[in-house]
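Usage example:
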Amino acid sequence: MTSPAPASTTASTPASPALRAIEATLTRANAELPALAPLLAAFGPLFAARARLRETAPGWTGPLPAFDAERFCQGVFVLAQMEHGQGFQDMSASLPQAAQHLLPVMAASFPALADELHSLLGAVESGELAPQALAAAAFGQAVAVPGVSAETLAFALSELVRPFVERQAQDLNALTKDVSWRQSMCPVCGGAPGMSVLRRIKDEAEFIQSHGGRRFLRCSCCATEWTMKRVSCPACGCEEPDELVVLHDPTRPFERADACRRCNSFVLCLDTGDMVDVPDVDVAALTLLPLELQAKAQGFAPLAKHPWSEL
Amino acid sequence: MPKAFLIDTTRCTACRGCQVGCKEWKNFPAVPTKQRGTHQNPPDLTHYNFKLVRFSERMDAAGKVTWNFFPDQCRHCLEAPCKSGASLEDSIIIDKDTGAVIYTEKTVKEDFETIRSSCPYDIPRKDPKTKRIVKCDMCIDRVKANLLPMCVKSCAMGAMNFGDRAEMLKLAAQRLVAVQKEFPKAQLCDMENVSVIYLITDAPANYHKFAVADASDSTQGAPGMDRQQLLAGMFEPLRRAAKQIQG
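Running the assembly step on the lines above writes:
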């Protein structure tokens, strides 16, 4: 497999900060972890294509849904507060065009799936698979597409809707600003965290500043980030030092898997507190695959899986 | 992408965490010293102290006492006079990615006094054991590994900032505006020419006589090198070469 194409090469406009971060993180990861080069080459262009779609996605249209801060503080996330539980807004109108952009990138990245992905694209372009059916299939409704397996369809469509979901979540997350959220599920969509990040927050206060960075959990569904107590298991709330295990490679101290012996779960963690340039979190999650495998080998289960988790 | 520091002295409490962090990371031994009636210790930069928090206490005509703190270090000049003053091409190099000015082992062949006098900030020191000329290297080993320089990591007050130059210039401009509300004389030192930008609230000479390259406007007539002397130093290698050609 060839090394990944620069993330910005297919964009006609200058690379955005998100694309530049993806490109820089891929370049660094390829240099530091040559064993992961095939994986980076496969997923890197997909991350870049998703980022480009996210930047042009419409976001939440119309007024934001009603939000009750008191219910939110009690653990009712934003989408669960909607009257009829509609979830994210219908994005089907954007999907055919997005499929034309994303599916060829995926076909080039995953040659073993190329035939199925081309069949899927053909079904979308011919109208055989209507946009509404495309969206319904992406959110779990059983839809059969000739020549495409259920697994490939689920993988392709989840990647297809992800940029639109993430963009809508950015708008919805504005509702939760300055409101306390202490749950381990996503405050916007209720998804499970697939990743965590320690971020050093620039504090304008004239006091001694924290060096460790705050812990943010990142939703595996909509990429929303929210703060969580650092020394605790997000799955069961355990705070016993003897039960909490940190798996890490001594040569890469900023990467770790935070595991819990009480509930046998783990969440990957990237410590950016000492970093000059904060990496793209999706690419960073890919570079944490060795730790993910190590945690699983020790009997721990992830709170949420990545597309590459079963490779 | 070139990197830069912003050292916001208005946030510095002179805890000397940066000074100690630098020594620890470089694994430098303690330097014998003695009490001189000041917290500034050791008195000056040494071959084992690439970073030094300078303390400057003064009283104005009205009897108001101010105590200025200045975490002194190499400025990593964009056009480094020390490199221009070097006789060898690769004794002093500039890392293209970061802009760090790095002294290599070949500095043993350089004339120390020439290199030191070419620096408008009086930074270079000579290691008497190795004979190498030494100074801050921007923690190039850490920065290349995407880690913050040790002095920045150690700063508990947020005085030390490090990142892309464009980002630091933007931050510097924002902080200058905020600080000038209380301190109208606040300024950013030599920001066009260096990678280590200091935000100060008082006249440069009230921090350190080499706080800026040209301290000729200081109220105390500081003996810092002025621009004319600096440029003269930059042409010294040409003069030396001419002398060698002439025999």
